[in-house]
Design goal:
This protein is 87% helix and 0% strand. By secondary structure, it is mainly α.
């Protein structure tokens, strides 16, 4: 029991440390990873019949996905943002459906979708990230 609490505390501290030094790209990666972890936990809770754990894990997954949707930058690529918003909305509907029906196949489907998005996000080159940061900074200067 104490071992699990210690591991949890270590992971929390590690995550806080990672977030404190993370650039915006890394924050999105961490959010996606967090959503995937919560979905996997929710799936495990369903398999074990732990309804309280399932509800908590899947609610956290929905909250993280809502955070990803809220972080979208409409000014950068409105068409892509529209598509991602729709996909994130679809995911939250499916997670709620999976929670209600306890259907792990639906969770697997959502995880597959999120893994595809994360895979594309992970492929963004350092040069492209730096260009995006510079463009955003330039836009802020133009507004000020």
């Amino acid at each position: 029991m104490y071992e699990k609490k210690g591991i949890h505390a270590y992971r929390q501290d590690s995550l806080k440390s990672d977030l404190a030094s993370a650039d915006p790209h890394r924050v999105i990666q961490l959010l996606m990873q967090g959503a995937l972890e919560r979905l996997a936990l929710g799936k495990g809770f369903i398999e074990r019949g732990d309804l309280q754990g399932k509800a908590s894990a899947l609610t956290n997954a929905v909250e993280i996905i809502n955070g990803l949707r809220d972080a979208l930058d409409r000014d950068r690529n409105p068409e892509l943002v529209d598509n991602l918003e729709s996909l994130y909305d679809y995911m939250t509907v499916k997670i709620n459906e999976a929670s209600a029906t306890r259907d792990i196949a639906i969770i697997d489907h959502v995880m597959d979708l999120l893994l595809q998005i994360k895979g594309a996000w992970d492929q963004i080159s350092e040069a492209d990230k730096q260009k995006a940061y510079a463009d955003k900074a330039e836009a802020r200067v133009g507004i000020a």
